[in-house]
Amino acid sequence: MSLASFDQITLDYNSGLIPPPFCHKYKIVVTKNDQDKLKVDLSLEYLDRDELTEEEIFDEGFSMEDDFVWKGDLPIVWGQEIEKRLTATNWKKKGPQGKDGSAFKIKLQNKGTTELLYPDINKNWEILAQEIIQAVFELGKKEAPLQIKFHTQDKNSQMQHVEFTFYFAYQSIELNSTKSRQTKMDWAAGQKLLKYIFNFDYYPENGFDELPKKSGNYISPGDGFWYELTPLSNSGKDAIERIEKLVDTLKGYC
Predict the structure, then answer these.
(1) Domain limits at 222?
(2) Could you tell me the pLDDT band of residue 74, with boundaries at 50, 70 and 90?
(3) Does residue 94 fall inside a structural domain?
């Protein structure tokens, strides 16, 4: 069975034993028709929330309407992305559950053959699945494209600013900068940048509702708040270097 293509692929995930409101499961079914166009069927369900009050759910940044079901067309670029991942993956016949009880499996249908497979590294496919879910959220109008903003201001009030708009549905990125003429960004480079940006934790209680007017480096990662990119007083050398590298990287796009 060739793993370079597919007629239909199903990504099935269960987060396992993590507590609510975080525990969830999803199933993504991507089907290719005779014209190589794609259909997607997503079912996302959060589990065991009857144990929590609405306030407890809201306090964790969730809502009462996080479950989502949607069917529709998926841009063909995702078929190409899936096929690249199929080719690059080493497969196992059996996949053990994670230590937390989580499980990820893939059912592949191609040329009349169906096989249940498990990737050697779940994380790579889980990231792909999350990106497809984000694409579906955009297509289904559940969420707007992700917008990330960076602003830097020195002590002389010299300012630089850049905005990244990530369109997951079409794997495209728009840039709007104070100085740079660059208006587009390569999707692979954008994925690396996102991974780097979200390697840090952003806590709303530490954020600002509006962009501060004092000098500093600030990021708005898409949650409506601004966060100062500065090491804490007890930060180690590694943390300081990572923040400095992120700031330098973002400044490069201004």
Answers:
(1) 146-251
(2) very high
(3) yes
